[in-house]
């Protein structure tokens, strides 16, 4: 049982690290989504990073970001975005 729990925990840690690495790569897209972006069209680096990013990693990060306000005891916000 202990080994099964260790394997589960290790798998979760590995997945978290993979997501962290993939999400770090998507930072090349940041200039396109920041306020005041001059050219909001993605370049090949951004498109390649998005293609290489696991969709669950990206969606989970966005979901987590939307819950941070309530976890910090701040008013929630709705960006009016639907996919």
TrEMBL record:
Q: Do you know which InterPro entries this protein is assigned to?
A: Bifun_inhib/LTP/seed_sf, Bifunc_inhib/LTP/seed_store
Q: Which organism is it from?
A: Arabis alpina
Q: In what residue span(s) does the Bifunctional inhibitor/plant lipid transfer protein/seed storage helical domain sit?
A: 19-79
Identification of the protein by name: Bifunctional inhibitor/plant lipid transfer protein/seed storage helical domain-containing protein
Q: Which Pfam families match?
A: Tryp_alpha_amyl
One GO cellular component this record assigns the protein to is: trans-Golgi network
């Amino acid at each position: 049982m202990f080994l099964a729990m260790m394997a589960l925990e290790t798998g979760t840690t590995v997945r978290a690290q993979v997501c962290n690495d993939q999400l770090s790569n998507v930072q090349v897209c940041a200039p396109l989504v920041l306020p005041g972006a001059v050219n909001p069209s993605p370049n090949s680096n951004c498109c390649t990073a998005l293609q290489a990013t696991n969709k669950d990693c990206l969606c989970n990060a966005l979901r987590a970001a939307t819950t941070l306000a309530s976890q910090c005891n701040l008013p929630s916000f709705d960006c009016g975005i639907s996919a």
